[in-house]
Design a protein that fits this description.
The complex is a heterodimer of chains A (136) and B (140).
Chain A lengths: L1 E13 L8 H8 L8 E13 L11 H16 L2 E2 H4 L2 H4 L4 H13 L6 E10 L2 E5 L4
Parallel strand pairs in A: 1-3
Antiparallel strand pairs in A: 1-2, 2-4, 4-5
Chain B lengths: L1 E14 L8 H8 L8 E14 L10 H16 L2 E2 L13 H15 L4 E8 L5 E4 L8
Parallel strand pairs in B: 1-3
Antiparallel strand pairs in B: 1-2, 2-4, 4-5
Helix pairs in contact in B: 2-3
Classes of the chains: A alpha+beta (136), B alpha+beta (140).
């Protein structure tokens, strides 16, 4: 089994707010992230796939295809967007880094053909990242 | 849905690697430059990984403010700009980065209960790093 990781970057804005909470609770739990005008990050997405090396091509996965899938499924939808207002997953869920990693996994998993998705890592900043392995 | 959250922190400390169980010659042979009696320092980078179900109400594994507050209070304020050899934790223990990783893991395991502690990873320099996950194997 060989693991292959491809990175991509995107920039987006978001804010944290749960309509079930009172305004005071939202401010207490989410702090500055509750500002409804939003704030932004330069995110780094790392997608790790795993599989056996194809003896004819020497590839686990065609990197060009993986790059295209990541662009089509994630970057085209999220890059330079306000996540709460423009990405359907976040109409109902809070766009935390945790939920972002899960959303990226769900967008990518069924689209991969040659290799299996192993891990999605999303960096919100260089000092904060979330890993999702598809665990329920 | 279970996710893993990793946060990176920085602190700087000095230490000297010297074991009371070894002769002076053996200490020099074992620790080399790190046995310098006056000590030396590093800029450490600490990575703490915690895991747990993502709370549907907050979208979080744990509130980052709680994790940052705990690490600041219990780890960074204890070790940052200190000589590790002078601390109680290392009175009987050589302050290698192996032992420092284990110490920090145990501090977190004892006191931080808002999420499951997975791993502590400590970079001593950009060239070497150490990872400790208690009785578990660090997840790759």
């Amino acid at each position: 089994m060989v693991y292959l990781t491809r990175k991509a970057e995107f920039s987006a804005s978001h804010y944290y707010h749960n309509p079930a909470f009172t305004p005071e609770e939202n401010r207490r739990i989410f702090g500055k992230c509750n500002n409804s005008n939003g704030h932004g990050h330069n995110y780094t997405l790392e997608v790790t796939v795993k599989g056996e090396v194809d003896p004819r091509s020497g590839f686990v996965v065609d990197l060009k295809q993986l790059k295209e899938i990541m662009h089509r499924e994630v970057l085209d939808a999220m890059d330079h967007r306000f996540l709460n207002k423009e990405v359907p997953e976040f109409f109902t869920q809070i766009p935390t880094t945790e939920n972002l990693a899960i959303a990226c996994w769900q967008r990518l998993e069924s689209k991969l053909q040659q290799a299996r998705l192993h891990r999605v890592r999303v960096y919100e900043t260089p000092d904060l990242f979330v890993d999702f392995y598809g665990e329920k | 849905m279970k996710a893993h959250l990793t946060r990176r922190y920085r602190f700087s400390s000095s230490h000297r690697l010297h074991s009371a169980e070894m002769s002076d010659e053996e200490n020099v042979r074992t620790y080399g430059k790190c046995n310098n009696p006056h000590g030396h320092g590093h800029n450490y980078t600490l990575e703490v990984t915690v895991s747990g179900p993502v709370d549907p109400a907050t979208g979080m594994v744990c509130n980052l403010v709680d994790l940052d507050g705990f690490v600041e209070r219990e780890v960074l304020s204890r070790f940052h700009l200190e000589n590790l050899n002078t601390l109680q934790e290392f009175a009987q223990l050589v302050p290698t980065t192996e032992n420092l990783s284990i110490e920090i893991f145990e501090i977190l395991q004892r006191g931080f209960h808002q999420a499951h502690l997975e791993t502590v990873r400590l970079e001593e320099t950009m060239m070497n790093s150490f990872e400790y996950a208690g009785t578990a194997e660090p997840r790759k």
